[in-house]
Inverse folding.
């Protein structure tokens, strides 16, 4: 089997996509946004609570999409919960580099390890948008999505 | 098996493949298996070669020129119009308007025929299986002029629901806009019957022939449609060109579409008068090179026994259908009798994009997504499907490759 | 003389001619002297070759596809957009909309920017030297929505009358639509000044760059225009493609143009939402092959020192102008300082069509007629002119052939 | 000099184009029509008087255009004046064949001789419309142009 495909569709990814964490809508969200991938028509919504300290107290996502977009959204919520806004942005930045196959220096060793399962996407340029959709939506929610 | 099919069909797909240089390329080290002709067909050598040769020998702008090349180019362009007329089985070249594609042909009818006469509350009948290009132009009339869209349903097996069509046409109907062949289901609609129903109520019919023109042999008079839209790139021709067939009586009354050179009779500071059809609807420099390419594509196609091509494609369709039936984890969407060579399906637990990505790595190019047909996706309760569409250059070996790749995908994702 | 001109110009037209296969053909047994590039330019081998190569290796429909060829084709298409951006000196690829040509680019602005906001009595300022493609779209708004056209005069030597422009812009002006370069007079308009005047009143400026883009080096930010329309076939590229530059702020507010695939976000039975620019304005399958051809043409042009090409064309213009001055039976229309390489003229007792026919038999291809500029013809009291337009591949020998042919015509008709 | 050009621009043609016969507008016309050549923008108007016997009692043309269109219109008025409608139509038919280089059997030997100067146009397909404009306009006037 194709080595790149095996890396793309690792067990961790498939598991996240089949059993997404933090799936749903936070009723008391302080921020929310909808994301849309014109390439495939996939949609995702992100709801989150930014507390007084600028920390992501809670975060959910909802949407339908391919394994990559679902897994990426699920991992994202897992990783973002509890982080400060600034931390979250650095993480996103690192992630975007990673999936494009670029040097992701900004990532902590731990984050780098967690995200390693996503690095295979860089071999599939047409699917990179699937992986980044949730992250961009998160960013939109924080920047322009105050409820 | 292939050999038998070939002889039965009277069409040699293997031989035809040699006319399409791209088909001998590889992707990811695997031979290309191109099953995305429904999105756009590959071009035979003759098409690109006709355009190049024309550019290198006879090219100039058309019409209005007195010099030799201008005359030569105009001859090419008008000969192409005659080729399109013949291909469509239309009565007169004056009924053939060159457009930039199928989408523009439909927009032209919406804007130049219907927009000037439609009133708030007037109805446009269209089907749930339409491509967005035969939906959004009518949504414009809803948004801007208060038109009402009446939807014709699709049956469970993916055919046009004729009872629903009958019910949809009413006293306020101003247009019936229906595809000739669905780009997702492959369903071929009974245009003659549709026309009979619509004309009985005095309603004109536009047929979206972007897929139909590729797979069916056409005769405008027999079909009886008022408008028929085609696009060049799906019919083995170049991009950047399409054509609208429209009855002369309609064209005469229609207002201009784009304004510019060639479509006028006289322009002053205070006034403008318009040229007769079809020039009235061809503002600006038309797709000259592309007209030559489109004519070459139609000539290429007409060089075969088209019934034999049809039989060949039907053979592929049936062969693929039978193979897919072995997979109980996969559901074909659209199984109408008489359908054309397009198969869409969904697979349990596998998103179309993931499937298509895996197929792609096996060299198999299929389409995944909503296929510009969101209302149809909604009708079948899916957000996307995977689609294999067949062209004259496909073979049973391509189907075999598809099936093998699907099995591999199942192994990875299933 | 030719050799000196070549060295001075830093551009070798003789060498460039070899890139254009058609230029070595004959008509009526005479070498072709092509002086009709203003109507449409010939294509360098690289353009047709790029389209063919693309079709034979990487072709598929763009966007939405997951498979390899779809990605490759999309890369080609979006790379072409970047090439156009660079060529126009625009800020972002999101400000570049591919169209079917210059005419459609202008119609797009008229219909999607202005039609939704213009009120009866609102004014559109345009000049008497406009091509019909920059007149008729505005006449539509007059006919259909009661807009008023305000005409900017042309001076006796064929320049834009800036005093008249100043006077024409008023509180009800909603658009200034002016050519960058006249296709009859060759006059180049002072766009920066025009923009300054218009913007001072809060009025946007559309420049018709169909000729300007061929002969001038462009920088959208420096010009300051709101909209700039170009066409592929005049700039040594294929037919069937053009582009509109539009400021992002305008594009964001503009309503869709054609409806169809690719330009939507979501379509349901009752509603439709639209994609962001530029996709919003590119309904249907775009001119994919042509985008590759256009990029090849721009790359070809950018491979030279464009200032040197400009100097070469100016040399031809001056040389021709001086030769024509010897004929007291001939009157050049348009002698504005700084004009581009286009010469129109009328000849005593010789109708432009008769002249062009005789020139044609000498192998000299010129344009005769009203050049899609009837208001300008009226301004100069003529019904038609004969026009010679120069491109990078013309030489002084071409001018000499023109002059000799004119003398012959004089002998026959004079 | 090019033989075809010499035939096209014979002295007779040039003379007709410089000194057109029956140039102007008949104020008491019974029929009239405007003709337009979209190729070059040339226009021609034809006015005529059809008498009770269906004879072209008088005919004028007016317009601006190339030597070919002017000469053709001028010759046409010369030839049509005094003819019956049926005769005129036969003449037109013969003329249309002639300028396309086809066999113009219907023409009488006299008419054939008069029109011979126009036969050179058949070598110039792009100019045939110039030659036929006035004739088509005449036909329109008779058929649909009753004043
Ligand atoms: C059924 C149908 N209609 C219309 C279109 C639009 O054609 P084009 O994109 O070439 O304008 C397509 C293809 O995309 C189609 O499949
Ligand atoms: C100044 C000018 N504007 C607009 C156009 C229209 O361009 P196109 O016919 O390619 O759409 C032309 C060319 O014909 C032109 O010369």
């Amino acid at each position: 089997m194709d080595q790149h495909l095996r890396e793309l569709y690792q067990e961790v990814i498939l598991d996240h996509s089949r059993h997404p964490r933090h799936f749903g809508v936070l009723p008391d969200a302080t921020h929310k946004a909808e994301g849309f991938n014109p390439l495939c028509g996939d949609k995702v919504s992100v709801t989150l609570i930014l507390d007084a300290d600028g920390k992501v107290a809670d975060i959910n996502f909802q949407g339908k999409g391919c394994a990559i977009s679902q897994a990426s959204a699920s991992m994202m919520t897992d990783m973002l919960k509890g982080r400060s806004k600034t931390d979250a942005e650095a993480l996103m930045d690192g992630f975007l580099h990673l999936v494009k196959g670029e040097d992701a220096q900004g990532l902590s060793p731990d984050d780098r390890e967690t995200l390693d399962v996503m690095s295979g996407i860089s071999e599939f340029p047409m699917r990179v948008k699937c992986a980044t959709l949730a992250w961009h939506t998160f960013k939109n929610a924080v920047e322009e999505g105050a409820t | 098996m292939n050999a038998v099919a070939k002889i039965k069909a009277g069409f040699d797909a293997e031989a035809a493949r040699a006319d399409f240089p791209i088909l001998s390329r590889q992707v990811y080290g695997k031979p290309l298996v191109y099953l995305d002709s429904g999105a756009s067909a590959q071009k035979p050598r003759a098409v690109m070669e006709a355009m190049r040769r024309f550019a290198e020998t006879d090219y100039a702008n058309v019409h209005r020129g007195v010099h030799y090349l201008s005359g030569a180019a105009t001859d090419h362009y008008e000969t192409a119009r005659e080729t399109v007329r013949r291909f469509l089985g239309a009565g007169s070249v004056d009924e053939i308007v060159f457009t930039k594609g199928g989408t523009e042909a439909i927009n032209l009818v919406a804007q130049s025929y219907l927009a000037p006469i439609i009133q708030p509350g007037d109805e446009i009948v269209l089907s749930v299986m339409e491509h967005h290009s035969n939906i959004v132009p009518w949504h414009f009339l809803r948004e801007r002029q208060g038109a009402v869209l009446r939807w014709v349903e699709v049956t469970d097996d993916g055919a046009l629901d004729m009872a629903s069509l009958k019910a949809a046409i009413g006293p306020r109907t101003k247009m019936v806009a229906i595809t000739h062949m669905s780009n997702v289901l492959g369903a071929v609609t009974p245009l003659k019957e549709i026309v009979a129903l619509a004309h009985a109520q005095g309603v004109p019919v536009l047929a979206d022939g972007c897929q139909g023109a590729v797979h069916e042999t056409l005769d405008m008079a027999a079909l009886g449609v008022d408008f028929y839209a085609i696009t060049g790139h799906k019919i083995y021709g170049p991009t950047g060109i399409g054509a609208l067939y429209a009855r002369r009586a309609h064209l005469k009354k229609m207002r201009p579409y784009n304004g510019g050179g060639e479509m006028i009779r006289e322009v002053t500071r205070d006034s403008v008068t318009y040229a007769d059809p079809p020039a009235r609807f061809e503002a600006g420099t038309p797709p000259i090179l592309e007209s030559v390419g489109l004519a070459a594509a139609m000539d290429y196609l007409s060089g075969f026994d088209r019934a034999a091509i049809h039989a060949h494609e039907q053979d592929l369709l049936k062969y693929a259908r039978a193979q897919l039936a072995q997979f109980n984890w996969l559901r074909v969407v659209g199984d109408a009798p008489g359908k054309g060579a397009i198969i869409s399906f969904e697979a349990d637990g596998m998103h179309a994009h993931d499937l298509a990505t895996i197929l792609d790595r096996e060299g198999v190019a299929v389409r995944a997504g909503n296929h510009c047909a969101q209302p149809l996706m909604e009708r079948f309760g899916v957000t996307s499907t995977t689609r294999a569409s067949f062209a004259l250059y496909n073979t049973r070996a391509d189907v075999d490759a598809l099936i093998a790749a699907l099995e591999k995908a199942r192994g990875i994702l299933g």
In short: The radius of gyration of chain D is 14 Å.
